[in-house]
Protein 1
Amino acid sequence: MIGAALVSSAAAAATAATSTAPEITPRIPEFSGDPIRDTFTVLLVMVGAVMCFAAGVGLLRFPDVLSRLHAATKPQVLGLLAITADVAVSTPTVGNITLAIAIILFQSLTAPISAHMVARAAYRTHHVRHDLLIRDDLLNREDLQQP
Amino acid sequence: MLAVVIVITVLFGAGALAAVYRIIKGPSLLDRVIASDVLVATVMCALGAEMALNHHADNLPVLLALAMFAVLGSISVARFMAKQDDA
């Protein structure tokens, strides 16, 4: 009798647990229904993703610091431009468009600064492959050349 | 939509993995700096893609902060790098 009661209470607890447990189903994003906006959203997201992938491939394949720097600036400016324009197209409110413009402005202000500083440090620490350069405007600066 | 999500996940993931490989492997310090910049840009693009596909805009302030301050690290490393540093 007691065992049956235990089993029944265990079964009740089990049913209670299954009924209160949240159902875990992966939530797939939905299209908004507007075909023009959905086309732009998918197109711009794909542009950003391809830019990030291209930067990864460039980091793996390119031979020296300057050419890797060239590959790295693609997602920093073009990919982020596509993605923030995508957010502005996907949820077009005044606040979102203003923030997107601010993001693009600050990123395009700061990305060239860091690229310039990294390239300058690469030249001064002799991490540049001179056999790959077509023209080197700093060749007349003896203080920057390799001893 | 599921196909789009899978494709962009693979592309972002491959880009981020390549950047992490270059951070670990990279022959010079500047290669690691460039690769970490690419990793930050990939994270920003992934956050924005999630916002665009789910039709919300909660992460836009995060993107703004990253766009303003993510360069400080690479600038300071490049500026104060020792001249004879080969690592």
Protein 2
Amino acid sequence: MAKEERTASEKADFKRELTEVVPHLRAFARGLCGRADMADDLVQETLLKAWAAQERFQPGTSMRAWTFVILRNAYLTDMRRNRFRGEYDETVAERVLTAPAGQEEPIHLSDMHRALLTLPPERREALLLVGAGGFSYEEAATICGCAVGTIKSRVGRARAALNAMLADGNIPKRSIDDNAAHRAILEELDDVAAGQGASRS
Amino acid sequence: MSSKTPKTPQRVPAGGPLPTPAKSGKDTHPDWATGLRKLYDSVVEEPLPDTFQDLLDKLDAKD
């Protein structure tokens, strides 16, 4: 079936929805790669790809979920090219920390962010999608191209790991800069990227 | 008792306080879970650099 050119109003809708989702793309990207400037690069890349693929977007479905798939894949590709070293943005973490908390014992968010970045990428993204992005397990599974049970288990493991790290104050300093750790991450990324055709088009 | 009032007006959370998930009381909410949401929401609420809108406008004009 030949693809019909989208009507002007469909294109306008697409652009509007894509625009609306940009703040969420930035938040997801920041959580994934930890650094504001790199995250924004990733968002730009995502917008370009989303624009080029707009005929494949089903109007009425979730623009956020659709673009997250694109962003995620761009991230995995870039990560394997070694663009991101899992650095994190201390200033953001600190700023968030100063936000009114209402908590007796506010967690040190830069610790949290660093702990988050030490998680294997597939657990980190699962936790980000469900715990921060507010996606259901089902939606997260669709975004990551895996089974719902897999997402549940990843989120569970990520939570357990963070609980343990933050409870003990046992947060690896910069293990991501460590060569062995970095290689391990890349190997896991290979699995993530190979196993799951999330963006089957 | 005294919650700190942020001095910068833009720090006010757009959507008000985060909704507490009412479901399964099974896993209690550790502090970091709230922190994770805050980290995300704080980025969502950041003023958007013009670059994104510019990019979309450029793409739009090209079509």
